[in-house]
Write the structure tokens for this entry.
Amino acid sequence: MKKIYLDHNATTPVDPRVLTAMHPYFSEVFGNPSSIHAFGREAKEALERARGRIAHLLRAGEREICFTGSGTEADNMAIKGVAHSYRNKGDHLITSQIEHHAVLASCAYLEKEGFRVTYLPVDGTGRVDPDDVRKAITDHTILITIMHANNEVGTIQAIPEIGRIAREHGVLFHTDAVQTAGKLPVDVDALNVDLLSLSGHKIYAPKGVGALYIRKGTKITPLIHGGHHEHGRRAGTENLASLVGLGKAAEIAGAERAEEYKRLTKLRDALHKKITDRIERVFLNGHPTQRIANTLNLSFAAVEGESIILSLDMEGIAVASGSACTSGSLESSHVLNAMGIIPELTQSSVRFSLGRTNTPEDMETVAEALPPIIERLRAMSPLT
Amino acid sequence: MTDRYDDKLLDHFSHPRNVGQIEDADGVGQIGDSRCGDMVKVWIKVGDDRITDVKFRAFGCPAAIATSSAMTELAVGKSLDEAAEITDDVVAQAVGGLSPDKAHCSNLGAAALYEAIMNYVVRSVERGRVGCIASEA
Ligand SMILES: Cc1ncc(COP(=O)(O)O)c(C=O)c1O
Ligand code: FES
């Protein structure tokens, strides 16, 4: 049975070209980038080449790229780092209700320290109204953090506009671009952002590396103290091989992004159509058009998401769900809740997230596997 | 993902027993978990204070479906007293045990069965016939 992976928003496989690029940096070129001898210098060169590639992908300066140990760390660093550096200027942050937990939990932590946080609502498609951002800004606001695209439903925010508003008010602006870097054009000047997070394992690089773009002149209090790595912004010997991988992944994404985006849009829309042609009462969660190409989040009325996932898993198809039952926390998706989706439908949601591994045949296989599963589960449901 | 679950659970999930409803049921019970939003409904048929037939429907996760299915197998043929003792732990064991985050799922089927029995008892009392375990309720 061919396995089909449709969970690329959770993680992606390391691209073979990335793996090849990483290979020498375990045992051959293994120096500590901080060492001044030849071994160290060679490692340092590789590290800086990787940094250059990230900078190029984001149209940023190399000095503005700080490597981190994950997307989560980049988010934490941006939010706590700015809050702690600009505390004397104000104590208010603005974010949205649909951010990743890396952002929400960082904000909640700051609230415990005495900061105030506004969590902006979203509309039924998951969009933040830029006007709400404008209205939420006060004299005490020091940071706005709104994600570029949402990991669960794929909705893309009006980042350039929100950035313009932030700049008009002299407020720093961070965006979590973990789901868009390497997918959408991510140009820090076009987006009007001061800080931007990305993560390796969402773009076919290894897990456990990420980067934070920090616009020149932006002060950031480090999270991790120690040596003078990353210009004193993030201590700890860099994860050389994985960061080389991140650089290579950024290079590949930059070269192939536009084509791949078109390909995935076509595949995803074909999957969507095949499913709605064959199954009744299927509802799209997320924005119909302002949505990243690879993401399709659907609610199948009257059936619970985890039961759909397990049934598909038994047929070798991997998808994700926003239902409470998969999270262990018992709370259903905060994203779907914020979008005002009714509880039965949040419980019924399934996320298909496509990527480089997927083919048109995969879409057909999934669309053939789903109808009997939904039919079987609906037949056993007390809901109608 | 299938590794997360015991084979017994997967079997009940893939081939649930006694799915459906009983049109002329003697007792009906329904339980929803307000936190996760899942729901199980149970219908029973009673004769001589024994459960002669059980049917269920579930809107729930695999563990909720499987434990409800296991519950129906355990309940058929039992006296009402015995059936009232089919707890969440009992049905969880019947599917090979559940991880702590899934423990609440086993409560849906067991609690819906209890509700159905109570519903039968209340109906019997209303009909002037005192149910066997009405005093316990
Ligand atoms: C939007 C978003 N932000 C942040 C993260 C966290 O990234 P990482 O897994 O590298 O910590 C993820 C991935 O789960 C994500 O989807
Ligand atoms: S019944 Fe709620 S998670 Fe299983």
